[in-house]
Amino acid sequence: MFTGIIEAIGTIAAIEPKGNDARILIRTGKLDLSDVKLGDSIAVNGVCLTAVELPGEGFWADVSGETLTRTRFADIKEGSRVNLEKALTPTTRLGGHLVSGHVDGIGEIVERSPAGRSVRFRIRAADELARYIAEKGSIGVDGISLTVNAVDGAIFELNIVPHTLVETIMDDYKAGTRVNLEVDIIARYLERLLLGDRAAEASSGGITASMLAEHGFMK
């Protein structure tokens, strides 16, 4: 688990294709690796990866075909900047929100505009994720814990302060940039809980208006 508070910006130093998979070397910049050992988890752009080698200036990690398909790791090149966060510990301050490191889908920046000293981003999520994104709710964007300012269908809006622009890769974003999205884990569990006995069905179809009305949640 992670908090969504980025600790450092790293750089992709090498990519080694391994059939349908890949192995990547991430140079970790100012990230303190003194307490990291083989097998530890580090979030890279919001994707939980396992350190399989620790050469000193960073770490190597294996990226599965599933991860390449479901995240924007397919866009990553040598030299790409990435957000980094070590896994939380029992004594870690939860400054953001609980982030699992399991990406739910890919979003796309549709607009970037100035807002005083801040920057406003509008991001289009996949249609199937829209129901989990709420105004003033939390969302993970490339591993960054952020607050949703507004929602319009599958498009949501963020207001990013200067500190976040400097300490993450968000200043690199422009219209057309793809980003990893992780919705609030509480919304995921709540949806499953509301399904009740239907959750055991092979294809429950998710929560619908008729299902909510049937169980007294709507009139």
Observed structural traits:
219 residues; mainly beta; Elongation Factor Tu (Ef-tu), domain 3; 7-stranded antiparallel β-sheet; 6-stranded antiparallel beta barrel; 4 helices
Number of domains: 2
- Profile the largest sheet: 7 strands, antiparallel
Total DSSP helices: 4
Helix/strand order: EEEEEHEEEEEEEHEHH
Architecture (CATH level 2) name of the largest domain: Beta Barrel
Tell me the total number of β-strands.
13
Mean of residue pLDDT?
Answer: 90
CATH topology of the largest domain: Elongation Factor Tu (Ef-tu), domain 3
| Portion in helices | 10-25%
| Class by SSE composition | mainly beta
- N-to-C CA distance: 38 Å
Q: Quickly name the level 1 CATH class of the largest domain.
A: Mainly Beta
Question: What's the Cα radius of gyration?
Answer: 18 Å
| Apparent shape | globular
Task: Record the strand order, biggest sheet.
Answer: 10-9-13-7-8-12-11
Explain what the structure shows:
By secondary structure, this protein is mainly beta. It has two domains: 79 residues, Beta Barrel (Elongation Factor Tu (Ef-tu), domain 3), CATH 2.40.30.20; 79 residues, Elongation Factor Tu (Ef-tu), domain 3, CATH 2.40.30.20. Helices cover 13% and strands 37% of the residues. The strands form two sheets. The protein has a seven-stranded antiparallel beta sheet. A six-stranded antiparallel barrel has the order 1-2-5-4-3-6. It is globular and about 45 Å long.
